[in-house]
Amino acid sequence: MTIKIEKKIKGYEVVKPEDKAAPTAAPAIEPKESPVAEVIQMHESLERPEALIGSTFKIKSPLFEHALYVTINDIVLNAGTKYEQRRPFEIFINSKNMDHFQWIVALTRILSAVFRKGGDVTFIVEELKAVFDPRGGYFKAGGVYMPSIVAEIGAVIEQHMKNIGLIHDPEMSDGQRALIAEKRAAYEKSAQKKTELSPTDADTNDSAGFPPGATLCAKCNTKALVLMDGCQTCLNCGYSKCG
Predict the structure, then answer these.
(1) Is 83 in a helix, a strand, or coil?
(2) CB under 8 Å to 62, separation ≥6 — which residues?
(3) In this protein, which residues make up the domain named TSCPD (predicted)?
(4) Long-range contacts, stretch 219-225, CB < 8 angstroms, 24+ apart
(5) pLDDT per residue over 121-174, tens digit each?
(6) Domain segments of the chain as ranges
(7) Is the whole-model pTM more than 0.70?
(8) pLDDT tens for residues 40-58?
(9) Taking the CB of residue 227, how many other CB atoms lie within 10 A of it?
(10) How far apart are CA 186 and CA 191, in angstroms?
(11) Which of 16, 118, 137, 167 is the most exposed place for a label (fewest CB within 10 A)?
């Protein structure tokens, strides 16, 4: 097809095939992103602040002549934002008893290094609570069995992590609480019918108020397991096993 040019040519431009294929659209305007606060994660290169907040727990064990004092200090990440979080940063264990000074210092340094490494550090709780003393464990106040002093240190760290929100306990429903209270009342009523508590029996009752003669629960490690209607029932956590 021929085209007749009737006007003077004042200029020209070579049109390439790829230019014809490309659409002549207006350049897109990218939307401006709203500023987002930088989230600080826990990692081993995070420097220690001048001041830390923490908690101190007292451990009184029959295996030790003197009490242990466990101090756990936390670092606050993203302070003042919706991402604010407390995380364990270091741990100190102090006691007048110097017999176990070496392993206590080693344990505090290793635990502090694990805390500062970042990531999920809650696994350390189960590792410590699984340590058993070859001489045997003991019952702490409330009838809770501790297989070793290291296990109780693990229990202290677990309690601290619950306090700062790193570990969450499965909440017991109102129906479960009512059922446990009902079973406990029924057990105490049947026990009163059989025989009245002697002063010696009353002394064996622990501070948590569980009936004397209760055995150790395999689920919560509390001396609150009683036999009711042919079933082993825990009056602390509600665990039950029949047969």
Answers:
(1) coil
(2) 138
(3) 48-161
(4) 220/144, 221/144, 221/145, 221/146, 222/142, 222/143, 222/144, 222/145, 223/139, 223/143, 223/144, 223/145, 224/143
(5) 999 999 999 999 888 888 887 778 899 999 999 999 999 999 998 988 776 667
(6) 53-164, 174-242
(7) no
(8) 777 777 888 899 999 999 9
(9) 12
(10) 9
(11) 16
- The count of residues in the chain is 243
CA distance to 1, 10, 59, per residue, from 7 (Å): 19, 9, 103
Token pair for residue 75?
Answer: 């670092």
Give the residues across from 33 on adjacent strands. none
Position 217, amino acid: C
Q: Tokens 């290793």 label which residue?
A: 110
Q: Tokens at residue 240, please?
A: 């039950």
The residues near 242 (Cβ < 8 Å, ≥ 6 apart) are 230, 231, 232
Q: Where are the alpha helices (DSSP H) in the chain?
A: 17-21, 101-117, 123-129, 149-164, 174-194, 199-204
